[in-house]
Amino acid sequence: MQFFLLPFSWLYGFVTDCRNYLYDSECWKTTLFDKPIINVGNLTVGGTGKSPHVEYLIRLLKDKYEVATLSRGYGRKTKGFIHADTSANAKKIGDEPLQFYQKFKNDVDVYVGENRVEALQKIFTENPKTDVVILDDAFQHRPVKSSLNLLLVDYSRPIDKDYPFPAGRLRERRHGAKRADAVIVTKCPDLSIDERSQLKLRLNNYLENNIPIFFTKILYGKPQNCRSEIKNGDLQKVLLLSGIANPKPFEEYAKANFEVIEHLIYKDHHDFSEKDLEEILAKIQDDSTTILMTEKDMVKFKPFLNHSLLANTALYYLPIEIGFLEDSMKKDFDEMIFSQFEKTIYK
């Protein structure tokens, strides 16, 4: 099928090339801001690990600066600019922004808005003390000129072996990576120096000269009880739930650490329903079965956490963070981020 879809991919790539040319040639307007705007994005449709990298940046910056995050709010049922508050839920602001809000509400301001330029203007007007905004998934949002474009590339799906939609999963052609100021290869196994060098050589064919390339891996935390006041599970026998773009690493980790009776996989950003609950209940073998889900899914599953039919079932989620393959790599990355506050970005 990929062979027959390639002509459509060429057409799609041509359209995105034209759009990028209009921005590069300044025929279409881009807006510059006098405060750092750090964009975390990708060329691939979903699944590169943007959320844990945004969270890494939040943890890195929150103690020194007034930080805000801005997302489109994919999957929300609302429109327009919204500043997350205590009334926030996944339907109002989207699952990933809600995750940021629940984890960091005392440290950062979380916003959603489709029009990023308008949203940024409102953020700086509403809270002029904001020092930096982290843009979530805005690599293709060209109306905003970001201070730092961080391009995430999934190790298992490198851009040099992929194609634009519909033959592949790229949102634009590979040379769009030239807009990146740094590349992060995500979800890496433990790679040797030679393996990293080989991958760098391949990626450098699509990057500007001397663009730094970093390598990160997923760090799974201790499973957390979704309802601390309700039943604790022994986490020996688990039923997995996931509605994420790439559930394979989650499943592999769970199988290596628990007895997995089954993995119920839903589409990315899935909204759980009563019908899903019936399917889940049918898979629970007995009271010793623990439901284990991703942190992102826990946000969406929240309306069912206190459902009477789950009163005797333990519910856990698996938190994740990212780590760099080497301490020196982390040091270089952190210094690159902090340098945004030590220079005049636009001259």
From TrEMBL:
A Pfam family the protein falls into: LpxK
InterPro entries found in the cross-reference section: LpxK (IPR003758), P-loop_NTPase (IPR027417)
SUPFAM superfamilies for this protein: P-loop containing nucleoside triphosphate hydrolases (SSF52540)
EC number(s) from the headed UniProt entry: 2.7.1.130
Reaction catalyzed: a lipid A disaccharide + ATP = a lipid IVA + ADP + H(+)
Keywords: ATP-binding, Kinase, Lipid A biosynthesis, Lipid biosynthesis, Lipid metabolism, Nucleotide-binding, Transferase
Domain of life: Bacteria
One GO MF term attached to the UniProt entry: ATP binding
GO cellular component, one term: plasma membrane
Pathway(s) this gene product operates in, as recorded in its UniProt entry: Glycolipid biosynthesis; lipid IV(A) biosynthesis; lipid IV(A) from (3R)-3-hydroxytetradecanoyl-[acyl-carrier-protein] and UDP-N-acetyl-alpha-D-glucosamine: step 6/6
BP terms from Gene Ontology: lipid A biosynthetic process; lipopolysaccharide core region biosynthetic process
Role: Transfers the gamma-phosphate of ATP to the 4'-position of a tetraacyldisaccharide 1-phosphate intermediate (termed DS-1-P) to form tetraacyldisaccharide 1,4'-bis-phosphate (lipid IVA).
Similarity remark: Belongs to the LpxK family.
Record's protein name: Tetraacyldisaccharide 4'-kinase
Originating species: Arcicella aurantiaca
